[in-house]
Amino acid sequence: MPRRTSHTTLDRLRTPGRVTGFLKTASVCALIAGLLSPLGQAAAAAEVTAAEVTAANDYCGSQCSDILPPGQNGNATLAQILLNQAFGTQPEHAEDQLGPYANLAKGYPSLTNATINNFFNDASFGVPSDQVASTLHPGGRSDVTIVRDKKTGVPHITGTTRYGTEYGAGYAAAQDRLWLMDVFRHVGRGQLTSFAGGDPSNQGLEQQFWRNAPYTEADLQAQIDNAVANAGARGRQALADVNAYVAGINAYIDASDSGRSYPGEYVLTGHKDSVTNAGTIEHFKTTDLVALASVIGALFGSGGGGEVNNALSLLAAQEQYGVTEGTKVWESFRERNDPEAVVTVHGKSFPYATKPADPQGGALPDAGSVTTEPLVHDATGTGAGQSATAASTAATATALSSAKRGMSNALVVSGKHTASGHPVAVFGPQTGYFAPQLLMLQEIQGPGLSARGASFAGLSMYVELGRGQDYAWSATTSGQDIIDTYAVELCQDDYHYLYHGTCTAMEKIERKNSWAPTTADDTAAGSYTMRVWRTKYGPVDYRATVGGKKVAYTTLRSSFMREADSIIGFQMLNDPDYVKSPETFQSAVQHINYTFNWFYADSTHTAYYNSGDNPVRATGVDADFPVWARSAYEWQGWNPTTNAAAYTPPSAHPNSIDQDYYISWNNKQAADYSTAPWGDGSVHRGNLLEDRVKKLVAAGGVTRAALVKAMADAALADLRAEDVLPDLLKVINSSTVTDSTAAAAVSRLQTWLTAGGRRTETSAGSKAYANADAIRILDAWWPLLVKAEFEPGLGTGLYTAMTANLPVDEAPSAAHGPTGAHAGSSFQYGWWSYVDKDIRAVLGETVKGPLERKYCGGGSLSACRDILISTLKTAAGKTAAQVYPGDDLCAAGNQWCADSIVQRTLGGIKHYNISWQNRPTYQQVVEFTSHR
C-alpha cells in the first residue's frame, strides 16, 4: 500500500486546494461562464490611469534582488479556482516566481552578477513608467496610491499621509492574501475547523497552536493595550498604523463583496453563495492581528520547551547507567556547549542557559508518572474518530517539542573581502512552501516609512524582512530558551494549585468548535471542546508526581501574552530616520521579543544581533529541566499579571559588527550560548555554509554571484554525505571489502562523494538524480546504521527516549522529520553529530567534546566495521519503492518526486512541484553602493 504523505504543522492544513472531483469539466465551464462578468467589472472599477512610481532615495544601485515563490497573487475568484482545478490555468502573478526560483538549482554554476536577475526579481525601489501594470487609489483615497508592476504584480504603496499609507498596505494585503489572512486569524483563535472544515489535519493545526496560546478576546486586547502603554509615542503610532491597516483590509472586503471578486474559497467553504451573493466575510479587528502574530511567533520565533522530554531521557539514562554515569552520558548527547559546533559569532562568549554548577529547584517526575494533559473533550462525530485522535496526538507532540521549526539561512561578507569593497549579503527566511505563500512582497513609501521586502500576510503594516533606503536586513530562527517548565503543586483537587502558599484555582479556557461538510471539505459533521487550564505559571501541559506529590507541569514563555510588543521593532526597521547605522539597526531589533538571529548590511558595514526576551533565571535553575513553581525559582522581576520580567541586557545577547563574515542556518549563535533544540554539535547544516563562505573569504574578491553560488551549492548538498560519509567509508575501507554487494555499494557512494555529494538532477528538468543509486543507498542506510550503532549500547529505552529529543534523520524525502515531506528544509535535526563523533572516536581520532562512551561495535574498529557493512548490505538491497514508498503525489520508487518541493495548498490554487533545494523561501541578494 502506498503511504500517505506525513504532514506537520501548516503542512497538514486542509483547505480548498483539494477540491475532490466535485464538478465535471462541462459543469465547470458552464459555471465559469456565469462568473466571469462580475470579476471584470470589479477589477475595472477601482483602477485609474497608470503612473510611474519614482524611486525614493534608493542607494542600492540596481544591486538589490529578491524572490518569493510561487507568486505575489494569492487570491483567486471562484472562476479562477475552477479553471485551475479543471485545466491547470493560473491567475495572473500566481506562479511567475516559481520558475526562476526553481531554475537556480541547475543554473547556479554559470551564474554571474549580470545574470542574477534571471533567477531573482529586481528589488529596486519604484516602478519604471514602462513597467507599470496598474494604478489604484484604494477606497477612492487621494493620499495613497498602489502601483503594481508588470513582471511580478508586487504592490508599490506610496502615501502622502501616514494613515493613507497604512490603509493602502492593508488594502494591498487583502487583495493578495485575504483568504490566507482569514484562515490564520481563525488558527490563532483556535477556530479553524468551524471556519474551514473538520478535516483531521485542520483539527490538529488548531489544537497545536491553541495549546500554546489559549487567548481570550480580553487577552488579545490586553496585549494591544499593554504594548501601546509601554512604548510611548511609538506605541501610539503603532496603534494608529494598525487601525489604518485594518481599515484598508475591511475596505477591500467591502469592495470585493459588492463586486463579487472575493476569494472563491469563501464559496467553497460555504461562507458565500455564488449565485445570490448571500453570506458574510467578517471584517477584521485589531485583535485578529494579535491572533495572527501568535501563530507566526509560535512557528518561527519561540525557542524553548521540551523540559519534560529532557527529564524523561535523563531518567532513562540514569536507569541504564546509574545516576552519575547516566548524567554524564545524557550531557554528552545534549551538547549544550559543544566545542566543535559551528557558531555565528566568532571568538566571543555569551553565557546563557548554561548548566549550573549547583542546580537548584529541580522537579523531575517520578518514573512512569507523566501523562499529557488532554486538550480535546466532549468530541462527537468526526471529532472523535481514529483519524482525529491521531491528529491530536501529533499536534500535541509538535506543540510540546523543543525541536521547533527553525529554518532560514544567511551569508554575509564584509566589504574587506569583496571585489567592490562593499558588503554582500544573501539571506532570507525558510518558511516552507505554500500556495498562497505565508509571506507577501510589497514596497511601502510614506511619512516615516521606506522599505521593500516580505511580510507575513495580515501583518504587513511594516516590511518585516527586506531592505530600506541604504540598508537591508533579514533573520533566521535562533531557538534560545525563553520557555520554562514549572511543577505546580496541586491542592484541594486537580484544578487548584499552590501559588506562594495559597491554594489557587486554575483558570479554565475553552473553545467549542463544530463543523459540517462543504464543497471544499467533505468531512462529516463533528464537534469538540478544546480546554486549557491556565495558571500564573502558564498553561498546563502534563500531569505527574514528584517525590510522590501530585503536580501539573506548566510552560511559561517570555513572549506569552506579549506577542504584540514586537511591533515596535518592526516599525523602527521601516523608519529611515531611525535605522542609519549598524548600531541603530541593533537597537531596533532589540525591541523584538521573538527568538531570531538578525543580520544587516549597508554599503560599509555588516552587523548581527540575537533577539528575544531572555528571562533572568534564579541562581541555580537549570533551564533544561522542570523546576518547582515557587518564588525562589521564578524569573527575576516576574509580574504574573503581565508576564513581564527582568531580561538579560542587550550586551549579553550574541552580537557583532563588521565581523569578516557571518553565516547562520539555525546553528549555535556563540560559545556558551545554549539553545533549546538538541543537535548543536560537530556536524550541523550550518557547516555547509561555513565551509563555503570561509573559503570564499580566504580567497577574497567575493561577489554577489559568488555568494549566491555558495548558498545554492549548499542547498543541494546532502549533509550526511559531505560531512559524515567520508569517515564511515574510512571505517569500512580499513580492511579490504570482500563482499560483492557491500563493495558495489561502497563504490557507488564513493563515486557520488567524489562528484560532490549533491542531490541534483542529471540535467535541468530531467526529474532524475545523478548518482541516484548512491542517494538511495544512503537514504536507506542512515536510519539502519544509527540504530545498529547506538541502540545496543544505550539500550532500547534510552535510545527511544533520545530519539524523542532529537529525530534520527531529516532527509528531503523523510516524512518522519519535523518538517514532513516535500517541505524543502532538510538536515536541521538528526544524529549526524553523534555518528561523526562516535566514528572518529572509534578510528582513534581526536574528538573535542566526545560522547561519554564509544558505541559503534562497543568501540572496536573491527566490530564497528562489521555493523556498518551489515547495515550497508541491507540498505543496498532495498528497492527504490521500499525507500520511497510513494504518497498522494508521488508513485512508489520515484526518488526525485519524493524529494521534490510542493507548494502546499492553503487555498484553491495548485502548482507544480519543483526539484529539491534546501534554501530560503524568500531570499534577498544585496550589495549597496552608497549611503546617506
Give the helices and strands, then pairings.
Blueprint: H1 25-45, E1 47-48, E2 64-67, H2 78-87, H3 98-107, E3 121-122, E4 132-136, E5 144-149, E6 155-159, H4 162-188, H5 192-196, H6 200-212, H7 217-230, H8 232-259, H9 265-268, H10 286-300, H11 307-321, H12 323-334, E7 349-352, E8 371-372, E9 376-381, H13 386-400, E10 409-413, E11 424-428, E12 434-435, E13 439-446, E14 449-456, E15 465-467, E16 471-477, E17 483-491, E18 493-499, E19 502-505, E20 507-515, E21 526-535, E22 538-546, E23 549-557, H14 567-573, H15 582-589, E24 596-602, E25 606-610, E26 627-628, E27 655-657, E28 661-664, E29 671-673, H16 686-699, H17 704-715, H18 719-723, H19 725-732, H20 740-754, H21 772-794, H22 796-805, H23 832-842, H24 861-876, H25 880-883, H26 895-899, E30 904-905, E31 923-926
Parallel strand pairs: 6-13, 7-29, 12-30, 17-26
Antiparallel strand pairs: 1-4, 2-3, 2-31, 4-5, 5-6, 8-22, 9-21, 10-11, 10-28, 11-31, 13-14, 14-15, 15-16, 16-24, 17-18, 17-23, 18-19, 20-21, 21-22, 22-23, 24-25, 25-27
Helix pairs in contact: 1-2, 1-8, 4-8, 4-10, 6-13, 7-8, 7-10, 11-12, 11-22, 14-15, 16-17, 19-20, 20-21, 21-22, 21-24
